[in-house]
Amino acid sequence: MSDQQPGVPQTLEPRVVRLLAPNASPYTYTGTQTYIVGTADLAVIDPGPDDAVHIQAILDALGARPLRAIVITHTHRDHSPGARPLKRATGALIVGCAPLALDDAGLRSDAAFDRDYAPDTILADGDSVGGEGWALTAIATPGHTSNHLCFALSGGTSEEDGALFSGDHVMGWSTSIVSPPDGDMGDYMRSLEKLQARDDRVYYPGHGDPVDNPKRLLRGMIGHRKQREGQILRLLRDEPRTIPDMVGRMYVGIDPRLFPAAERSVLAHLIDLRSRGLAIERGETWHVVDAA
C-alpha cells in the first residue's frame, strides 16, 4: 500500500473501492481508509474526518451513482465526522454504530470521539443495510470502543462474498488501542474470538493493507495480548509497579509519541486482570494477587 495516495480511488475487487484520507499520523498510519461498496448504487464505509478535500474525492468517486448509505464502524474522529458533509451533499442516510454515551466521571480518554455523530439508523448485531447486488451485515465487536461494529459483505456470488470491513478492531498495520474507560480488554478479546469463529476470506481494515489470511492474523493478535498479560503478571510478581514503570520495561524501542497509548493499553490489561481477581490497585501502584 506504500504507493497509495490520498484521494486516488483504488479498486480492490469489483464491489470494493478504497480511498485514503489525508490524515496520516502515528495513530492512523498512512491515514483512514474509506471504502465504497457496490456497483450501481453504493455505500460508503467510514467517510473519515470532516476534510473538504477528502469528501470531494469521495463524491468524485461516486460520480452519478446514487449513494444509499453512509456506514459507520465507530465514532472516533478519524472515521465518522465526514458523514455529515457527505449526507448534506448526497442526501444519503447515516447508518451503523450507536452514538457513544459517555459519563463525566474519572479520567476520560474520549478526546478523539465524535460527539456530534447522529445516525439516522442504528444497526445492532446481525442487522443489515443493502442495495443492488450487495448487503452489509453488522457484527458487534466491542473492545476498541464499546460501540464498534464490523461489516460483512454479501449479496454477490459465493466467490465475491466473504469480505469483512474490520474498522479499527483488526487493522492491517498494528494492534488496536484499547483505552479505558470506554475501551475494554475483556470485550476486545471476546470480539477477536468471535471473529476467529467466522470464515471470512479477507479483511478490509480502517488502517493498513487488506488482510488476506484473517484467521492467522487473529491467532497472532490473541497470542500477542496473552503475551502482554503474561508480561504484566511477571513484572508484578517481581514487585508492585506503576503503569509508567511497566510501559518502560515492556515497550522498549517504540516511538515515544506512542507511550500514552501504551499506558492506556497496560491499564486496560490491568483492569481486566482486576476483574478476574488476578491484580489489585493501591493508589498508583499495582500488585499481583497471591493465589494462595
Automatic annotation (TrEMBL):
Xref: InterPro entries: LACTB2_WH (IPR041516), Metallo-B-lactamas (IPR001279), RibonucZ/Hydroxyglut_hydro (IPR036866), Sec-metab_biosynth-thioest (IPR050662), WH-like_DNA-bd_sf (IPR036388)
Domain of life: Bacteria
Residue span, Metallo-beta-lactamase domain: 31-207
Name of protein: MBL fold metallo-hydrolase
Natural source organism: Sphingomonas aliaeris
